[in-house]
Amino acid sequence: MSFDRSIKIAPSILSADFANFGQEIRAIEDQGADWVHVDVMDGHFVPNLTFGPPAVKAFRPHVKTFMDVHLMIAPVDPYIEAYAEAGADMITAHVEAGPHIHRTLQAIKAQGVKAGVALNPGTPVEAIEHVMDLADMVLVMTVNPGFGGQKFIHSGVEKTRRVREMIGDREIHIQIDGGVTPETAPLVAEAGADVLVAGSAVFKGGSVDNPEVYGANMKAIRDSISG
Ligand SMILES: O=C(CO)[C@H](O)[C@H](O)COP(=O)(O)O
Ligand SMILES: [Co+2]
Question: Which residues bind a divalent metal cation (predicted)?
């Protein structure tokens, strides 16, 4: 299959109803989500705690599209196999989470899943220059990781442009995560991003009983780009 450079929306289930993940995942996919973004936090690398491998395994049967697992944990290497076995289609690790990002990306690829490398807002793009050949995706964080609902950090737009230049003609996705809304999505899409994570902007105002709101929220993001 040829590389898909079209805009993809990846709702973060960090903003879903935690008592109802199966229905929430089905609702966002029925309403047009392209990927499902799962935020794994350890209370150490980031000041919040979320999903261990058993939780991710429980999400798996509900995900019909693509399960994108964002690991905000340190150390990361001891847990790669468990998250791959839990059913991740892509595992993204932070370059800041350990001294050996090259080894980490090799370990992800060795599990037969796609590998993403994430950059915190304060990390320069040069930190990933020498691992581009191992990456299927670069994640540009536009908030400091740990929580949903934060304000978009605008330096991420120029950073996205620089990542785009660094990628050249390689088949590597650029994902933006944090504060994506109909106001900020066109800025990063224009700079070269193709995967937009959105938590609060997708889930706000909706529920599994009123899922059309999720669809309308995703449409507002897509329309802001095509417009
Ligand atoms: O990785 C994350 C936080 O660390 C989340 O994916 C991100 O914050 C999404 O939430 P929102 O769209 O509400 O900013
Ligand atoms: Co995330």
Answer: 37, 39, 70, 177
Residue 192 lies in a domain: yes
Q: Looking at this predicted complex, what is its ipTM?
A: 0.98
Number of domains in the chain: 1
Enter the pTM of the model: 0.98
CA of 119 to the centre of ligand 1 (A): 14
CB 180 near ligand 1, within 6 Å: yes
CA neighbor of 47 nearest in space, from 168, 191, 192, 145: 145
User: Is residue 70 a part of any domain in this protein?
Assistant: yes
